[in-house]
Design a protein that fits this description.
InterPro entries: Cro/C1-type_HTH, Lambda_DNA-bd_dom_sf, MLTR_LBD. The protein is α+β, with helices and mostly antiparallel strands. The chain is built from 12 helices and 5 strands. The chain folds into 2 domains: about 5-75, 434 Repressor (Amino-terminal Domain) (Orthogonal Bundle); about 90-265, Beta-Lactamase, CATH 3.30.450. The protein has helices at about 5-20, 25-30, 35-40, 50-60, 65-75, 90-105, 125-130, 145-150, 160-175, 180-195, 240-245, 255-265; strands at about 110, 120, 210-215, 225-235, 245-250. α2 (about 25-30) packs across α3 and α2 packs across α4.
Length: about 270
């Protein structure tokens, strides 16, 4: 029998509401209840029903993995399954992802999990990482580590200071929004890998608009790829595994880059 704790759920709900910077009144409006009811829940005077727990979690955009934790804290069984990606039941999802990756060629694209570990990749990404030290490509492959490690792509990144800030800041923001011990350790590791990275972005820093400028070789006269990225996730997934997948695609920022990527994949 699953038993919940008023205080346990109350503390967890309050923590998520504070993290999202949402008032009790706003949360009540989003969840279709009253501020009084939310106040009673957070004070431990009332333990909500299963549907209310889900509505509150959804209103706070709590990840589905953590929604299961909230349900357990309230005394209910988890509502969201966590299925291995190689399970036959997820065959259609795998097929769809494989088609998306193939359709993105000759441009690089990867599917990663919530910690940035590589789940799937296309030939464009493998061509981009052909100079990466083999140990960094042993599963589980951390894509952020491959990008910023001295034995990864870092030596080829022309704008490493900017790009490092872009990557580390994005991961740090994710750990603040959705706490994850493993991701926090990765952020600390990457910060140590690039100790000369400016602690604050340069005056001309453009945030998510920072392009990846990547030399095509190790010589000074090699060409340069200019890439921009897109990040896509499943917006309606109710399976923990699928909900945590992210599709990151690298797009050419100019014609020369498009032509070079085509040559890299074809040869």
């Amino acid at each position: 029998m699953i038993t919940g704790s008023k205080d346990g759920f109350a503390d967890a709900l309050r923590a998520w509401r504070t993290r999202r910077r949402v008032s009790q009144l706003e949360l009540a409006a989003r969840a279709g209840t009253t501020q009084r009811h939310v106040s009673f829940i957070e004070s431990g005077r009332s333990l909500p029903g299963r549907s209310m727990v889900i509505r509150l979690a959804e209103s706070l955009e709590v990840p589905v993995r953590e929604r299961n934790v909230l349900l357990l804290a309230a005394g209910f069984a988890p509502a969201y399954p966590q299925t291995r990606l190689d399970d036959p039941g997820l065959g259609p999802v795998r097929t769809a992802l494989e088609r998306i990756l193939a359709g993105h060629l000759p441009y690089p694209a990867v599917v990663v999990d919530r910690c940035g570990d590589l789940v799937m990749a296309n030939a464009g990404f493998h061509a981009l990482t052909d100079t990466v030290a083999p140990p960094l490509l042993v599963p589980p492959v951390s894509v952020p580590r491959v990008l910023l490690h001295p034995h990864g792509l870092a030596p080829r990144i022309v704008n490493l200071d900017e790009w490092a800030w872009h990557i580390i800041d994005r991961l740090h923001t994710e750990t603040v929004r959705n706490p994850n011990d493993r991701l926090q350790r990765l952020v600390a590791e990457l910060t140590e890998l690039v100790p000369d990275r400016p602690r604050q972005p340069a005056p001309d820093y453009l945030g998510f608009a920072v392009p990846l400028r990547l030399r095509t070789g190790d010589g000074d006269n090699d060409g340069e790829l200019r890439l921009i990225t897109t990040l896509t996730h499943f917006g309606t997934a109710v399976d923990v595994t699928i909900a945590e997948l992210r599709l990151e695609a690298f797009l050419p920022a100019d014609e020369a880059t498009a032509a070079t990527l085509t040559e890299l994949v074809i040869r």
